[in-house]
Sequence to fold (160 residues):
Amino acid sequence: MLIRPEAAGDLEAIERIHRAAFSGPVEARLVARLRADGDAVLSLVAELGEAVGHVLFSRLAAPFPALALAPLAVMPDHQRRGIGSALVRLGLAEAEQAGWRGVLVVGEPAYYRRFGFDAAHAAGFETPYDGPHLMLRPLGGELPARAGRIAYAPAFKDLA
Fold:
């Protein structure tokens, strides 16, 4: 499997992956809008002969340099093979190397805990997604802040 940064020729494949993985257009539209608004920071594609997975990290307004992990998608016939995990792990490593201090995700705790995401890390922050599925993964050591307001990119308002 090859994981690489998104390229201009990947846009249709990325849309297809999200539509298939989520059985609809919402996440595909989110990716397109984050990209168009200039809020997409890190976009990775997984290939197995063709594009089969995608993850996007977008900027957050937070008390420290932070990203949102959303969305993550793998074609249904390629799920449960470690592709999503590989995309998340590489994305987190690249975000840390680039100097980001934390990544937030809204997702299934049983899945995202394996990458170091924890709801306890997010508990002091206010977001539109507060609750047990909001998790934070510190990068590069301790978080510079433990509380404050975190704003997602405007594209997320349609999801809140």
